[in-house]
UniProtKB/TrEMBL annotation:
One term of GO molecular function: coproporphyrinogen oxidase activity
InterPro entries found in the cross-reference section: Aldolase_TIM, Coproporphyrinogen-III_oxidase, Elp3/MiaA/NifB-like_rSAM, HemN_C, HemW-like, rSAM, rSAM_sf
Protein name: Heme chaperone HemW
Protein's UniProt keywords contain Ribonucleoprotein: no
């Protein structure tokens, strides 16, 4: 397959938020002084140029502006980033350009500007559709405001998606099923549905340790997961990845780049990348602190602090770990090509017997609905 035909994504990280959510362990920062967007736009363009010099000749099939809160950027800043990508790589005519946005009225007023800048898909961080939960999650919007922003997104973009968090304190499967039905009615084509996880270093971690934040026990969490799968499947948004649901053909193409083990460039503070240079897969990561990243880029042309060469075993393990998250599963022959050894037939037979995986007539290996809740164990077993 020629390079131009392969999926190649560009991820751009905008690291700033208005406030830090108590469950969030992403690389996001609150700044009370105004952000110098011109300086950041110039640094993004510089890092894009340097990255394209290392990994040229690609056709960009997807661009994802993530964060942080990219909808805090002016549309002109977004336009400058997209222009820089277009200057240094070929961009596919049907490129998917996603921007993550907060569903507040202030940011929704910028949607037309983002559309004019070249964004054609928006992903809204709704997180919940009831005000009590939104307040508990530290969100700055109400449920009404979120639904109004979804309506503006619907008018501004052909494609849009939103996120919800479930397994929240005091949430029952019946409550979640009602919320999901409302969400699917509003979502049109794509939903990202994440179980609340308590991450070390977040305010929620301290509260949880102190017994002041109670999340659903294992049995309720499993029931909530099952309700998620059943409701979405029934209403036409089946899971195509363990936490992502879409109508057929409406999958997020950028996220598929990650899960299928394709190449992507990571631009901006704390961004990760996977690039094939001279036949070797590089795993890159940039400086996380925004101001330190800026200085590195202005001095060196890039903010990379990690540039690891992945050996065949590491590449194969990563392919397995990411690919088995997908409902489409993996082609074991690609694993063999990457690692130099096939998956163990005995382990495959045992996992099939246990009902955790299936292998179809073409040899494609998939995790079953009963295998997904124990996906880590399935992957560990196959990789051993």
């Amino acid at each position: 397959m020629s390079r131009a035909k392969e999926a190649f994504g560009v991820y751009v990280h905008w690291p700033f938020c208005l406030s830090k959510c108590p469950y969030c362990d992403f690389n996001s920062h609150v700044r009370h002084a105004a952000i110098d967007e011109g300086r950041f736009a110039a640094a993004f363009a510089r890092e894009i140029e340097t990255t394209a010099q290392r990994a040229g000749g690609r056709e960009v099939t997807s661009i994802f502006l993530g964060g942080g809160t990219p909808s805090l950027m002016q549309p002109a800043t977004v336009g400058a980033v997209l222009d820089a990508i277009g200057r240094h790589w070929t961009v596919a005519g049907d490129v998917e350009v996603t921007l993550e946005a907060n569903p507040t009225s202030v940011e929704a007023t910028r949607f037309a500007g983002y559309r004019a800048a070249g964004v054609n898909r928006v992903s809204l961080g709704v997180q919940a559709l009831d005000d009590v939960s939104l307040k508990a999650l530290g969100r700055m919007h109400s449920a009404r405001e979120a639904l109004d922003a979804v309506a503006i997104a619907r008018r501004s973009f052909e494609r849009y998606s939103f996120d919800l968090i479930y397994a929240r304190p005091d949430q029952t499967p019946a409550m979640w099923a009602d919320e999901l039905r409302l969400a699917i009615n509003e979502a049109a084509e794509h939903l990202s549905l994440y179980q609340l996880t308590i991450e070390e270093g977040t305010p929620f971690f301290g509260l949880h340790q102190a017994g002041k934040l109670k999340t659903p026990d294992e049995a309720v969490a499993r029931a909530l997961y099952d309700v998620t799968q059943e409701t979405c499947e029934k209403l036409g948004l089946p899971a195509y990845e363990i936490s992502n649901h879409a109508r057929r053909g409406a999958e997020c193409r950028h996220n598929l780049v990650y899960w299928r083990g394709d190449e992507y460039a990571g631009i901006g503070p704390g961004a990760h990348g996977r690039l094939d240079i001279d036949g070797v897969r590089h795993a890159t990561a940039t400086e996380k602190r925004p101001e330190a990243w800026l200085m590195r880029v202005e001095t060196n042309g890039h903010g990379i602090v990690t540039d690891d060469l992945l050996n065949s075993e590491e590449r194969a393990d990563e392919f397995l770990l990411m690919g088995l998250r997908l409902a489409e599963g993996i082609d074991p022959e690609r694993y063999t090509a990457l690692s130099g050894r096939p998956l163990d037939p005995g382990r495959i037979a045992l996992l099939r017997e246990e009902g955790a995986i299936t292998v179809d007539a073409t040899g494609r290996l998939r995790v079953t609905s009963s295998g997904f809740p124990v996906l880590d164990a399935v992957v560990a077993d196959l990789a051993a």
